[in-house]
TrEMBL record:
One of its GO terms (molecular function) is alpha-L-arabinofuranosidase activity. This is non-reducing end alpha-L-arabinofuranosidase. InterPro entries: Alpha-L-AF_C, ASD1_cat, GH, Glyco_hydro_b. It catalyses: Hydrolysis of terminal non-reducing alpha-L-arabinofuranoside residues in alpha-L-arabinosides. It comes from Fundicoccus ignavus. Residues 294-475 form the Alpha-L-arabinofuranosidase C-terminal domain. Keywords: Carbohydrate metabolism, Glycosidase, Hydrolase. One of its GO terms (biological process) is L-arabinose metabolic process. The keyword GTP-binding does not apply.
């Protein structure tokens, strides 16, 4: 039993909608099959993009999509992915399964996808194996409104008006798959490459440098010191693992201790953001520079009989806990975390959606993003009080609605929580939830609605200023409190 006081007039910063970003890499079946089926496909599509996926992603209001990688980004040559499809050069995806792809999904198709979903664009450029000129011309191709060699080429390929590139990443994991660089060298390369990421219009491009791997605080220090003035954001990657010693533990049928070890690993995100942010504060006390957590989520064993290089994993109520707890951490660090992109959108790692032929299912993680969507661009609200060990929540306010999202990751016990809301008048409360009954409960193509969001009624509003909620074990509950 826990008690909290909501101080609804005390606002603790705006939760950027970009925290709800997605990541779509040319990896396994994320782009090909997951998003792109081609115009000739029997699967309902518009301009080659499957509509079941678009519709599901529109419903959770995806604000931004990062593309084309990941490790793939540093081997991607954008000019191979434009123009008539039959003339496009194929390429070997050396990072992910060694498969050959035909480059039919390129720049134009990516912008089409974002337009259909209503998302903004985060392009990740190639530093590892690409040139400064190549990166610079890509930006010119996408954003130059007037006449220029690249803008004219874009028009020849069917797009008159420039697109808006909101975010641009200069390399990915440059300490690893993106070139195995040392931070001093990368910081210099970053300064050089970003110089030629030009602004061709009033729309300022938010430039993101490749940041540290997990707890590489030295990388952060060097980058902030040597390149801090030239960047808007620095990326951070952290994946939750169920075992530190043995990578890739099963996504389903796991023992009880791995329920908690995966959650503990995810909760490390708080420490990482706090410590990296402390280093950033030294060089950027005003928190102008964003920490961009552009890869996060659980990394588990692939499904049996699937290509290990495709990273196709199942998604259970445990993943829903990971999503909810991690989003709560991002909310609390809203001053520093300007964007986050869960890995990845479809069919890869902790995905929103899984597809098989013409079938598509929503994962437990999808439902958390659905339950949490009110927090986008809302004000984080102050709360005081003491709770139990396995419960965590976010309370935010937007348009006179307080959204209270609670995660109870206890395996057996519900938590009765009372929220005192004395400083405002409550007129009504409605609620929804995702409630697990087994710790590896998940949806399958045979049983797609095994675990879905439902209406939730186990709460009481007393005298219009005290709300008692009985939060079931293994659940995420969102209450929408209308205030006057
Ligand atoms: O998301 C899968 C991979 O994980 C990305 O390509 C890479 O950046 C990271 O190591």
């Amino acid at each position: 039993m826990s008690k909290f006081q909501i101080n609804s007039q005390r606002k603790l910063g705006k939760i950027s909608k970009y925290i709800y970003g997605q990541f779509a890499e040319h990896l396994g079946r994320c782009v090909y099959e997951g998003v792109w089926v081609g115009e000739e496909s029997n699967i309902p599509n518009v301009k080659g993009i499957r509509q079941d996926v678009v519709e599901a992603l529109r419903a959770i209001q995806v604000p931004v999509i990062r593309w084309p990688g990941g490790c793939f980004a540093d081997e991607y040559h954008w000019k191979d992915g434009i123009g008539p499809k039959e003339n496009r050069k194929s390429m070997v995806n050396t990072n992910w399964g060694g498969v050959t792809e035909n480059n039919h999904f390129g720049t134009h198709e990516f912008f089409e996808l974002c337009e259909q979903i209503g998302a903004e664009v985060y392009i990740n450029g190639n530093v590892g194996s690409g040139t400064v000129q190549e990166m610079s011309e890509w930006v010119e191709y996408m954003t130059m409104p007037g006449q220029s060699p690249m803008a004219d080429w874009r028009r020849e390929n069917g797009r008159d008006f420039p697109w808006k590139v909101k975010f641009f990443g200069v390399g990915n994991e440059s300490w690893g798959c993106g070139g195995n660089m040392r931070p001093e060298y990368y910081a210099d390369l970053y300064r050089q490459y970003q110089t030629y990421v030009r602004h061709y219009s009033q729309d300022k491009i938010y430039k993101i440098a490749c940041g540290p791997n997990v707890d590489d605080y030295h990388w952060m220090e060097v980058l902030m010191r040597n390149a801090g003035h030239f960047l808007d954001g620095i990326s951070l990657h952290h994946y939750a693992l169920a075992s530190y010693w043995e990578n890739k533990r099963p996504a389903t049928g796991f023992p009880e201790e791995e329920w908690f070890s995966l959650i503990d690993s995810a909760l490390k995100m708080d420490e990482l953001i706090t410590k990296h942010s402390t280093i950033m504060d030294k060089y950027d006390p005003d928190k102008r520079v964003g920490l961009i957590v552009d890869e996060w989520g659980s990394w588990l064993a692939v499904e049996p009989h699937t290509n290990p290089g495709f990273l196709y994993q199942q998604n259970t109520i445990r993943d829903a806990m990971i999503a909810s707890l991690t989003l709560n951490i991002f909310h609390r660090h809203n001053e520093r975390v300007h964007m986050a992109n869960i890995a990845q959108m479809v069919n890869v790692l902790q995905a929103m959606l899984l597809t098989k032929g013409d079938q598509m299912i929503k994962t437990t993680t999808y439902y958390v993003f659905d339950l949490y969507k009110n927090h986008m661009d809302a004000e984080l609200i102050d709360v005081t009080g003491l709770g139990s060990d396995h419960t965590d929540f976010t309370i935010s306010k937007k348009d006179n609605v307080l959204t209270i999202s609670i995660c109870n990751y206890d395996l057996n016990n519900s938590d009765e929580i009372t929220f005192d809301i004395r400083d405002t008048q409550v007129s009504s409360v409605i609620a929804e939830a995702l409630v697990g009954t087994e710790m590896d409960q998940h949806n399958t193509f045979e049983n797609p609605d095994n675990l879905v969001k439902t209406n939730f009624t186990d709460f009481n509003l007393n005298d219009n200023h005290s709300l008692t909620v009985n939060v079931p074990p293994m659940s995420v509950v969102s209450l929408y409190v209308q205030t006057t």
